[in-house]
Design a protein that fits this description.
This protein is an alpha/beta fold. Helices cover 39% and strands 16% of the residues. The chain has a six-stranded parallel beta sheet with strand order 2-1-3-4-5-11, with helices on both faces. Strands 7-6-8-9-10-12 form a six-stranded mixed beta sheet, sandwiched between helices.
Length: 377
């Protein structure tokens, strides 16, 4: 409970008398829960839905269920609406707010106001620059740089490439794209011949690639840098008559469909029909891990209970290549701890589902948490 509200509540409860307190044990127990809000922004992609699943699973875990009253709101890709919702959360008595911020700076004033009222604000994946906020994410610049460097190496420093970015305005998209373009600029033989906004959505990536292909054929493209969409781009190439051996190198997201495509052709997997199948697709696959929101919730509870929590937590960047792809048989915790990073299509029917879900810091949430919102038992 917010410390400022505790003192006010204490005086009110004292006035009610001991008999009233004894007579309402359920109410007293409910008041002990931390009121935490989840503020989501754009939800039109698989990553956001999966991250929300893991946050809800963390709140439902046996170690959290008696401590957390989690309420969820969605602002969409609209910073002003997210500002209004955060103000309302503070007024509703929030002890902490876990947020995917649509902008790194637009929320600063409302976040500062929340902090001034004793509300803890934890941003996951995307960044808030207001100093009182906590930030938990990968190094987004590293993600853009590493993947761009891989693509340049695959093309021996020369080629025409297509760039598909993420959700505009977010720190995630801005930092990744800037870092990647800095790498491409260092290699005069690399030419960005088309660029599109992909919104971190396989469906949007298909639409945007279709527009590009209306004026430029696959044979006019040498490589792809896509924050989301490598799985779809590979599928589109196969639909256009290319063979698996002819697929373009693609630097992109950690969707399970793309990871399965990276497995050597002929690898036995449970379920899945091509293009959701092993084909040795040339890839580097990375992701903002969807567990970042669950970790933010966990850290928020720790901070509310008096623990020291770092203001900025940088998560390891999960990078998988054709040399390091490893198939999971069941998705068990032990199997993921041993390094598997691609899951059976039979268990994950949605190829856009993100596979980088394991962290030793969040044993409360695993495969079922990411898939359906159920915590580890």
């Amino acid at each position: 409970m917010n410390i400022f509200r505790k003192f006010a509540a204490f005086g009110s409860l004292a006035a009610l008398g001991a008999a009233a307190a004894i007579g309402a044990p359920g109410e007293a127990q409910a008041q002990e829960k931390h009121k935490i809000f989840l503020s989501m922004s754009y939800i039109g992609n698989d990553w956001q839905a999966e991250a929300a699943n893991m946050i809800k699973a963390m709140a439902a875990h046996s170690s959290m269920a008696d401590k957390v009253d989690l309420q969820v709101q969605v602002a969409g890709p609209n910073a002003q609406r997210q500002i209004q919702q955060i103000n309302a959360m503070v007024q509703a008595g929030a002890d902490a707010i876990v947020v995917f911020p649509i902008s790194p700076t637009a929320l600063n004033s409302v976040v500062k106001n929340a902090c001034d009222k004793g509300v803890l604000v934890f941003a996951y994946d995307a960044e808030i620059t207001e100093p009182c906020a906590y930030n938990i994410s990968i190094d987004q610049e590293e993600a853009g740089r590493v993947t761009a460097e891989w693509l340049v190496e695959q093309l021996n420093g020369e080629g025409d490439i297509v760039v598909v970015t993420g959700v505009p305005g977010t720190s995630v998209d801005t930092l990744r794209t800037q870092a990647a373009k800095e790498v491409f600029d260092q290699h005069p033989g690399i030419n960005i011949v088309a660029e599109a906004v992909g919104m971190w959505s396989q469906a949007v990536a298909r639409t945007e690639m279709s527009k590009i292909l209306a004026t430029r054929g696959w044979d006019d493209i040498d490589g792809l840098w896509m924050q989301v969409g490598c799985y779809t781009a590979n599928a589109m190439q196969l639909e256009a008559g290319k063979t698996a051996e002819e697929l373009l190198p693609c630097a992109g997201e950690g969707a399970n469909g793309g990871r399965i495509q990276m497995l050597a052709a002929g690898t036995e997997v449970e379920g899945g029909d091509c293009p959701y199948c092993p084909m040795g697709a040339p890839r580097i696959s990375y992701a903002s891990p969807p567990y970042s929101g669950a970790l933010a919730l966990k850290k928020a509870v720790q901070a509310l209970e008096g623990a020291e929590v770092e203001k900025r937590i940088t998560l390891p960047l999960p990078v998988v290549t054709n040399e390091t792809i490893k198939y999971c048989e069941t998705g068990s915790w032990d199997e993921m701890a041993a390094g598997c990073n691609a899951f059976p299509p039979a268990l994950v029917p949605n190829p856009g589902w993100f596979a980088s879900i394991f962290s030793e810091e969040t044993p409360e949430v695993g495969f079922q948490a990411a898939l359906i919102g159920q915590p580890e038992m």
